[in-house]
Predict the structure.
Amino acid sequence: MYDRRLAFPALPPLAAAFLCGLGCGAALFAAMQRLRPAPAAGAVDGLTGCVAVSHGMELVNIELRRARRYARPAALLFIDLDRFKQVNDRYGHSLGDAVLRAAGAALKSALRGSDLCCRCGGDEFVVLLQETPIEGARHVAESLRRRLAGIVVERPEGAVHVTASVGVAAARPGEVDGDSLVARADAAMYRAKRAGRNAVRVWEDEPFCHTI
């Protein structure tokens, strides 16, 4: 998912010539140039397959610096599964884990390869959308809300359905503080909770602010 960030730098000409001189054919050399290092230990959440929070916030800050450097838009979604504690309390942590796995899979399958999907712990997820202004982020958030609402986890006594509340915030021009951006999206998510859950809300001081 993050090949672009983890790619090895291109070899200098002399090193390339040396490797080819050792007998590497053109196809093999090209394949070597495409090698990617293994993910760092702890970089991926073992349950959902999303990026772990510690590594995820580092990547959020990297992408915000990139957005500032090239004056490009970026937005962040804060997603919280509704009444997830009740799922754990009523049906047990095994079923709760199944819900989290399904949520992680649903989010990753719906996002672009350039987007960052991070599990913040418990039932919370953060999604960073590159090259996305606030209005586009709102539409993505609504699409993800509908996708999560379609999750059904089967059990002998009946199916368990899931919904989520989503907060949206846009990176301010020149912003490189991921914590501040996450805090605004988190505040918008709580507005969605207060509105009855299973909803999307956008941080109010952003342009093109809409509520759903």
Observations:
- Residues 3-33 form one domain.
